[in-house]
Automatic annotation (TrEMBL):
Pfam family, one: MDMPI_N
Species: Plantactinospora endophytica
UniProt xrefs under InterPro entries: CHP03086 (IPR017520), DinB/YfiT-like (IPR034660), Maleyloyr_isom (IPR017517), MDMPI_metal-binding (IPR024344)
The protein's name: TIGR03086 family protein
Domain Mycothiol-dependent maleylpyruvate isomerase metal-binding: 4-125
Amino acid sequence: MARAATPLLKIINDVAPHQLDAPTPCAEYDVRRLVNHLLFWGPSLEGAGRKETVPPPAASEAELDLTGGDWATALTAQVERVSAAWAGPDAWAGSTHMGGPTELPAALVGGMIVGELVVHTWDLARAIGAAPSWDDELLDYVHGEVVKTADQGRQMGVYGPEVAVPATAPTLDRILGIVGRDPGWSR
């Protein structure tokens, strides 16, 4: 989890105020809405690592704006808490919840969160003109996880329609294609 989060922690502080309204490769979100998404769901993802059910706020994600004030410090702290909650092997064992009553295998939830961190870091980076990088071992892991959850992710509306990417493309590009991102996206 920490290896997936490290590039995000660097990019958070590179977002300039004028970039909050910039589009991202995730069609549903500009930078502000993507930051809001990460802040909104962060406590639930953190709770999942501690085997605690932490429901999202009562207001919907669209109704609640968490990007006021020093959002960069708040998001940095939230990402660090998520990483810490998933740091030990107990977090990955057994089952857990992602904010709701349904129990899921903890390893599945952890894999989904690692994928979420990688993809949304890439989204933010592309929006502001940065280039995050992860090690090959982590990207191979994320690729395996998104392949396992692709159909479910599309049914849930979490992944978009798959974007065709050559099998010989870099692993990150193949991950992005599976979850519905165009690896060649630019502003």
